[in-house]
Amino acid sequence: MNSSQKLSQEYDVLSKMGYLKKDIPKYIEDNLNPRFKLRPYQIEAIARFIHYIEENPNRKKPTQLLFNMATGSGKTLLMAADILYLYNKGYRNFLFFVNSTNIIEKTRDNFLNPLSPKYLFNERIKFGDKEVVIREVSNFDEANEEDINIIFTTIQGLHSQLNLFRENSITFEDFKDKKIVLVSDEAHHINAWTRNRLNRTEEEMKKTWEYTVMQILKSNPENIMLEYTATIDMDNPAIYEKYKDKIIFEYDLKQFRIDGYSKEVKVLQADLENWERMLQAVILSQYRRKIAEKYGIRLKPVILFKSKSIKESKENYDLFREKMDNLSGSDIETIKSNATGTILEKVFNYFEREGITTNNLITELKEDFSEEKCILLDSENIDKEKQIKLNTLEDENNEIRAIFAVKMLDEGWDVLNLFDIVRLYDTRDGYWTRDGRYIPGNTTIAERQLIGRGARYYPFKLNEDDDPFKRKFDNQPEHGLKIIEELYYHSKHNPRYIQELTTALKEYGIMPYEEKEIVLKVKPTIKNTEFWKKGVLFVNKRVEADRSGIKTVDDIKIDKTYKYKLPTGFVKEDVILKEGETNSKSLETTTKTFQLGDFGDTILRKAMAKLDFYRFNNLKKYFPSLTSSSEFIESLKSITVDITSSKEKLDNLTPEDKLKVCLNVLMQLENEILNEYVEYKGTEIFIPIEIKKIVRDKQLKINVGDYGDQEYGVPMSNPKHPDLQLNIADKDWYIYDEN
User: How far apart are CA 713 and CA 711, in angstroms?
Assistant: First the structure.
């Protein structure tokens, strides 16, 4: 490894060159909750992990790896996938730790509660026809060898248990004879020692969380530690040195946004008092709800009202309650009169078109933002009931529309239906350097992180083929549903602060450096052609694949020739020879082709019995017309395998040799069967649709500066590179007036 290069950079090259296999084992996808499809970047992360464990010649043992991924990018789903992979590799004991009790409770729910909407696993977790249970244990003496056993703990609790012995708690002895997987969420919290190790003694180091964790990891060379965080300070030389050969995957917030997985962030300034700005957010939130209903989308949008102190938060809550309970037409008129040129002008125009009167609106807002649907939350106003409501804001039976808070939601809060954050104070604590750089203060950093959390995308589908977790209207900014793809940050009119915040958000990657809108029009000359007036495109549908006629491996398209290198059993003893003498005994290998049928039914049955995949109940999924295991064995007999070994070995294969060969071929065959299996296929019937109904004028929104030196958002008529110049407007064969 290049001494200054990160492991992730090596994998970037490997991936771009096409040397990284992206075929994720089928048992991983099958055992995850079908509601959560793995995204391309998550597949990339899993592929890198598998390659590192199985093929990387520089793999270190015990193994420690870090996944540095943006808030909201699905780190917990990746953890679940990695746990399934490691279970298949023989690991049974998992130690999950994190900094916060709140995150522990959420993760416990995600891993253990099948009724939770964010449960990560399938209804039944199966490896072949063996069903596996995820069990919470307090120590690994309670572990069941057939199941996934997890200890959930905070890092503080783990450190305390290991250094202050209590009955039934975890001890260092727990780790001595077992292979353990350590899973660290919000992993940046365990690096306090590394970050500040100057002038620290070894005795002080032994008292740290980081030391405790490393002691567990080092207790067995087969142990693995997987760290996940959105925040890692790689600018710190000590942190960089620690993680450069461990950070296997990086996916920052900027790339997350570019790939379409986050809301877009808008800032709405208003030179109004707190109540009027709160009411602005309420009206915008209600408009969102109505637009969603119009398109058949179930959405209950949530607003966060953020204050500077507990006292101010209580005052703002009381003000909101008093004003909302006595909401009047003049309150609405104040907002309407200040709406010109903002999103709120569009909102009031919509209300007018739909016949929603001021009185209708007042009645709705009083009901939707009544006292029981608002929550005051801070360290003095928190109980179990409020905590449950806060963690289930997306549930159908949770009616909370507004949250009044101070600092409690800056880390570990996971909510998708937050669309408005209202800043009810007006302080600044960042500063600008002489060379024009903005250094954000603690307040701005906390706001930046909160906006990052709020920018998580609210999933919905309009069409069957839509990815529910990706933005759909970047190129249709006038579409009504665009509002559901945006997070609004409401601030007092303070241009200096807004400049500072947007600078921080751009550096963080959650806002583009520059946006511009481009309109592409279909040429009038094209619209006058017969092609345009009468032309059609033929489109087919995606339907469930019919596998009813598939009986054995003879009925599927797979490679039926395999290779296997059988150890020769050759042992060589080197001696120091006299000059001129040679040692005539040397290793010579050859290759011979066999059919699996040559090894006999007994060997084939034994090999199948050792692999869960080949149990009859499981095979029926892939071969629905299969009637018996014997029928399947018959179809295996014609599969050929080229075995490389010594001639003597090949002429005298033992039953053990034959079983080894069969097992290896069946494992290769399993992957081929899984890769061949498809749940859906395109129909052979194509339906004509008029071209003019599909090809329309486009309104593109381009985020300038996001794409390095690519010619993205640059017209061909005036490109950066003159040799790419082409005046598309003059070309009769091109539909649009520009490219």
Answer: 6
The per-residue b/e assignment along 173-189, b for 16 or more CB within 10 angstroms, e otherwise, is: ebbeebbbbbbbbbbbb
Classify residue 271 as exposed, middle or buried by CB count within 10 Å of its CB (0-12, 13-18, 19+). Answer: exposed
Q: How far apart are CA 709 and CA 674, in angstroms?
A: 40
Specify the DSSP class assigned to residue 431.
Answer: E
Q: Which string of DSSP letters, residue by residue, matches 166-196?
A: -TTS--GGGGTTS-EEEEEESGGGGGHHHHT
CA distance 721 to 703: 20
β 514-520/698-704 pair status:
antiparallel
What confidence score (pLDDT) does residue 508 get? Answer: 65
- Assess contact for 481 and 287: CB atoms under 8 A: no
Half-sphere exposure of 506 (CA within 13 A, CB side): 18
Considering only CA atoms, which of 232, 231, 248 is closest in space to residue 82? 248
**pLDDT recorded at residue 266:** 87
Closest CA to 284 of 268, 306, 261: 268
**Helix/strand number for the chain, H first, E second:** 27, 26
pTM of this structure: 0.66
Q: How far is the C-alpha of 344 from the C-alpha of 352, rounded, in Å? A: 12
Residues 290 and 305: their CA atoms lie apart, in Å, by 21
CA distance 102 to 390: 11
Q: Are strands 93-98 and 180-185 parallel, antiparallel or unpaired?
A: parallel
| One-character DSSP codes across 599-639 | GHHHHHHHHHHH-GGGSHHHHHHH-TT---HHHHHHHHTT-
* Residue ranges for the chain with pLDDT beneath 50: 1, 193-195, 198-199, 205, 572-585, 708-709
pLDDT (0 to 100) of residue 292? 93
Cα separation, 627 vs 640, in Å, equals 24
Q: DSSP string of 647-714? A: HHHHHT--HHHHHHHHHHHHHHHHHHHHHH--SEEE-S--EEEEHHHHS--EEEEEEETSSTTS-TT-
- Closest of 203, 168, 342 to residue 266, by C-alpha: 342
